[in-house]
Amino acid sequence: MTDLLKVGVVGLGMGRHHAKVCAALPGVHLKAISDASPERLAEVARELNVKETYQDGHALIERGGLDAVVIAVPNHLHADLTIRALRHGLHVLVEKPIASDVPDAEAMLRASREANRVLMVGFNQRFFPQHQAAWQYVRQGFLGEIYYAKTKWLRRGGVPWWYEAGGKGALSTEIAGGGPLIDLGVHKLDLALFLMGFPEVSSVDGTTFRGIGKREGQKRSIEFALEDAGVALIRFRDNRALLLEASWSMHCKEPDTQETILYGENGGMRLANEVEVYSESDGIQMNSQLFGNDNTHEGGVTGHFCRVVQKREDPIITGEQAILGLRIIKAIYESAKTGKTVSFE
User: Fold this and answer.
1) pLDDT tens digits, residue range 196-221?
2) 177: pLDDT confidence band, cut at 50, 70 and 90?
3) 38-41 contacts: CB < 8 A, separation 24 or more?
4) Using an 8 Å Cβ cutoff, are 144 and 265 in contact?
5) In Å, how far from its chain's centre is CA 15?
6) For the chain, what percentages of helix, strand and coil (3-state, to nearest 5) are there?
7) Which domains can be identified in the chain, with CATH numbers?
8) pLDDT single digits (tens) 293-327
């Protein structure tokens, strides 16, 4: 690898942000981009002054002369492009979720090990300044053992109907792998597991709800086959627990709400736009606030990925962690379908 890390981006919807970060990072050269839309491809190429463009992501991987690639395409395409890139010797940052199903995700991880290349998943919430501040506080032991956590991402009316523009059936389990649980919930699940230290999962109880989106889909002549919302209780082998909620459509107060609450033996914490800490000293209850440093991780998850490939940072996201999150989400769907608890071996 030369001094400049040569990076390509496949998919310029979510990938547009990754491309902008790569174009601005020191020591990184955004060499090539790819998108199925010629109009969007040309627009981003002009904006970021990228000379090498492809409408086919496979061609970018095979002919781009790259060191690394960011893959930001629909969920069901993650595995094929990622494995192909790894086998061509490229390091890969793939958008969340790692894949639509667990076997594909496991195949991706095997390919990264065989190729001895970095495989990272775009869990960008770990890099928000307030979340980094919370993580540093937790890892220093100020909360003690976190025995219970609640995390949620609720949208009042946020079904991504534009998914259907990518082809009929995009709002189906086969294409997306699921609805708000795998789209939004996987982010909050990862954040909570990260802050709790990834305890070993014992079982999952979950249920999903469908009605609002189905009715709206009928009005739009779109077959909406996913959930409006889902909730789950995740139990860990050490008797800790995590409650997860996610929705695209729910009659809640706010249009978009994200929140993670941690309950520890020595203190509690609420993460939203700000981070509040609840503690006690000599019988006096105290509330305080944490503030993050915007420069903690330049470029968020994209910058972190590039520096890991350059061996300037150690990875804080692993393929194993991403697969655990996907296994939990899939267990929620199974529990909702069967009405039974799903036990983890």
Assistant:
1) 999 999 999 999 999 999 899 889 88
2) confident
3) 40/12, 40/13, 41/12
4) yes
5) 13
6) 40, 25, 35
7) 5-121 (3.40.50.720), 126-294+325-343 (3.30.360.10)
8) 766 568 999 999 999 999 999 999 999 999 999 99
